[in-house]
Amino acid sequence: MSTEQKKIIRVLNRFFKTDTAYLLHGVGWLGGAKLLGSIFSFGLVVAFANLLPAESYGTYSYVMAAVSIIALTSLPGIDSSLVRSVARGFDDSFKIAQRVRLRWSVIGATILILVSAYYWYQNNLFLSTFFLAGGLLFPAFTSFTLFAPYLNGKKQFRRLAITKVVVKFLFAVTLTVGLIFSDNVALLIALNLGVVALTGVFFTIKIVKQLSSIKSSAPEPGLISYGKHLTVMSILDTTSKYLDKILLWHFFGPVQVAIWAFAYTPIQIAQGMIKKTLGTLAMPKFAQNNFDLTKKQLPAKVVKLFLILIPFALLYVLISPVLFAQLFPQYIDSVIYSQVLIALLLLIPFNFFSAFLMAHARKRELYFIKIGFGLTSVGSLLIFIPLFGLWGAAIAHITAMTVRSTMSLFLFSRA
């Protein structure tokens, strides 16, 4: 790095009150990976919009929402626990975390197969087939994802970025090819879960081989316990993310699920770009840095990120009608809901307060945030969707995220 570059870094350090060199290095790789991943995801969304009937896409979204909720049985909270553990030097935590997640995933697989049997008994062979495909692939789909948290904890951002791009690319290409040749929902579900499972197994084997070549160490005490706590905290949170599609399916049918999915997907892609880049960088730093100093500096960083996001939100409101008309012509009805949902993007910066608490294992505060948000979200969805349909879903999500942001700020200030 040249003298001039070092001077610029020092100026940026003083302005943003953060390790700018670390941020630029991580964002360079993770930001690039997330940008490519978002392009692949967006291309896949365009393919779904133009190659699959709305009713079929609504059914696909409904089944995947159910699978995502049942995935809680595989203890996904271990992912965040592993990031913290590896960042603190406990590399061998990976092995025990992998074994535990695989063992617990059997519960979810059993539930999905039982759901399949229920629909078969009800003579609904279509849904029975869809859930059977999910159940058979469930253990591999949910269990072999720990390579990403491990690389995150090791701060190997270049390698993490490459693996994410590979997974996203293979996922998008495989499903797009599937859409070109078939509109069979069971096949699309199998392709979705299968690609994630196979790539996960491949990258997990590489991590295991790497760990076998270095001196073994004991896993961090409390790793699994903390992961279980994080999973319990996220039950309502995760349920609320997917409950909207299940309720819309039940009360209004698959076409309304498809309209809602296309309204929300662009917002989720934008949210993911921020959370999967800045959030991924923040967790290891929060776990290692001085508690009091980070707590003092974090609010100013959150405000700056909030202000940066405002013009992007306004720009989306202006261009979304043209975007949908050109790319999603059969989903023009989604535009107004998507414009309202962009408000969720402005609340993303507040997630860094809860991420700070997670990095320092403040379980009491995290329980308050997770349960408070989850109860608000699930309650709002249960009340507003039957009454107002798609507008009810939008109101529920914005209400719940506002409550979560407020609680995160309050509990962070008192930590």
Give me some keywords for this one:
415 residues; mainly alpha; 17 helices; 0% strand
| Number of E-type strands | 0
Instruction: Report on the biggest sheet.
Output: none
Cα end-to-end separation: 38 Å
Unreliable spans? 20-26
| Number of distinct helices | 17
Helix content: over 70%
What is the H/E order?
HHHHHHHHHHHHHHHHH
Mean pLDDT: 86
Output the radius of gyration. 21 Å
The fraction of residues assigned to DSSP E strands is under 5%
Overall geometry: globular
Structural class: mainly alpha
How would you describe this protein?
With 415 residues, the protein is mainly α. Helix content is 85%, strand content 0%. The chain is built from 17 helices and no strands. The protein has helices at 3-16, 20-51, 54-70, 78-87, 93-121, 125-143, 147-153, 157-181, 185-212, 223-252, 254-288, 291-327, 335-341, 343-346, 351-359, 363-388, 390-414. The longest helix is centred in the last third of the chain and has 37 residues, at 291-327. The protein is globular, with a radius of gyration of 21 Å. The two termini are 38 Å apart.
